Amino acid sequence: MYFRILKKDLKRKKTMNIILLLFVILATMFAASSVNNITTVLNGLDYYFEKADLSDHFIITLADNGDEIEDFLSGVQNVKDFRREDQLFFNDTALTKNGKKLADIGSTALLLPIDNGKLNYFDKDNEILKKVPEGYAYFTGCLVKGADLDYGEKFQLNLGDTEITLKYAGLAKDAFLGSEMFNNPRLIVNNADYDTLIADEKVRENNRSSIFYVNGYNSKTLESDLSDIPTNTFSKGISIVRTSYIMYIIVAGLLLIVSVCLILVSFVVLRFTISFTVNEEFREIGVMKALGLKNSSVRGLYLVKYFGIAVIGAFAGLLLSIPFGNALIRSVSDYMVLGNDHTVLISIACSIFVVLIIMLFCWRCTRRIKKLSPIDAVRSGQTGERFKKKGLMHLGKSKLGATGFLAFNDIFSSPKQFCVMTAIFTVCLLLIMSLANTANTLSSGKLLPLMCTQESDAYITDTDLIAKIMTGEKTYKGICEDIEKKLADNGISGKVSSEAMLFPTLEANGIKASPIFMYNSETKASDYTYSEGYAPKYANEIALTKQVAEKLDVGVGDKVKLTFNGKTDDYIVSALFQSMVQMGETGRFHESFEVPDEFITQVMGFQIDFDDSPDKKTIESRIEKMKDIFGTKYIDDTDGFVMTVIGKNVKDTINGVKLMVIIITAIIIILISVLMERSFISKEKPEIALMKAMGFKSRSVVAQHTLRFAIVAAVASVISIALCSPVTKLCINPIFGIMGAINGVDYNIRPVEVCIIYPAIIIAVAVAGAYFTALYMRSIKASDTADI
To answer: pTM of the prediction?
Structure first.
């Protein structure tokens, strides 16, 4: 009997049951794949780092002072052991194919001979690279996507006076510099090809680089112990390497948030479906009780039905979660060696969890069956009594037309079910808005203060110019003068300056630190933003980020010992600020601080302020002209400069997640609109028939039902717009906090996109789903009033 009743029920309510099944499938698929991916990425970092044999600390020097650093490390008691990896560095102009630049990297790349490798590097199959054929090169990191080469394709590498032709050997995975946030790819080549290049005297003088992998007896104090290291480019612990992979964890986390939202939506839809079914089937329930069936038997009938749907949906979701999860994590696995031996067990556990939650929810929602009695079947589910008004609106006082009045009155008469729809639409829309605000902010000038840079008319970030300072080919002032002269020769008058990055050593309370210090003699320290204290007024005052201050256990007004250029003096911490440079470990000097020109070896780029204060249109035309003058495309306005510093890949990753969420949201809203409207039609069939009997045409009734969804979507849009900013800060500020902006950021909210485009998409999708479902009402005739 049970199965015969269930079979008829499933046939009679195919649309509702199919949609409910789809929600269970989606919920299971997202839950299993997201939990699996987060587990894989989080555990995968430790797994990857262990297989790659990463050290506790890393030192990079883009100069020929490797022997000096090696001698220093040998004298540090806390250094347990260290490995030295000699290689060459170059910029993207050195790589060409058929006379054209191979890839736009926008940062320094490295060339490593495989025999010099002190880490384990892996191929695409996660096998350790032990040999590289002569004449071939493996690519790591962003160079893989940027170059877009097929196996065996030839390209040229030109360093100094030597050019060699290499063939692309494929992808290699580099645990240290392989993440997109580092953006420092490597070419791994045969030693014979490396020897050909190093034989060039110019290469030996200008392109030699060394990386040191240092292990300590006490890894917690190792960074402090190594703070006195001779001038270097990079000296950080493994924590910053771990942080560089944060985007992959964020993507997996965002997908998990989507999964949680989808599961909540599924439960809400399930509750509505069960409640609607129980209310609609008062006759069947009353008759079953009249025949002697107990409450537990009647509830069991419904539980069996939803258990069947839950099991089928969970099983289908489990099968789909494996390829779906692999597709989502493919971009991560291109850069990491991931290991997760419990994928199937986690997926099964998530599926069982979804089924159990659904069954508990069903048990709670079927409690109303206890209240129904055989007499309800006689009374058609009504007691005949009502002690309050059904709605707040009055037809006589309404200025709306019949369609508008009925639509609004329906919403006010059944606020609970329409509030549920509003909540679902609001959550979906807020998710899209938050991701959009994040992506827009990552390419916005609003992040400029966090780059420790003042606003200028144009920025040059060409790696060839920056490399000349790094190699000592030209001095910082010399390049600034060259840029100014070149601009003047082409009829453009302007002042050139840069945010120089210096590497002093700080000491306080027996703790040492080596943050990057920002310095620009052409700007004033008071022009920058600080969260506490006052801007440095004198040469012996400095500003620190909260991360550095906490590491040294100092605050505003405290003194620290600062060592720079071989000289140690006391400096006063006058202010605290936040920065995203080097994950927030930053400081700032006063503009009167004396820095010898030869000590400026790294700059953020070259800022250009035109003398005639041109308008935006003129600036844009000059930027295009400057690209031709300097022969580079790395000349940007403020927004472009921020995106270059942050990394285009970061924004692209967020945009990819945003697009996926928009598609998923559209699918969810269509499913909900179809399910709810189909339920409304089934419930309101007698009323619809009565309206037709009174002369209403089908299109009027369809318009009334469609308008209800438009109103709900519009209300959800208004609520979402109001909550957009606080929800974005609540969800996304922790992400920027990891990158250094612990006080949050000023988000770039584009009103047209956030307040018009996305709400319009949600409203259009909801209306379309409701409209096409409401067309079913054409089959309802005036004679169906007999069902009242």
So the answer is: 0.76
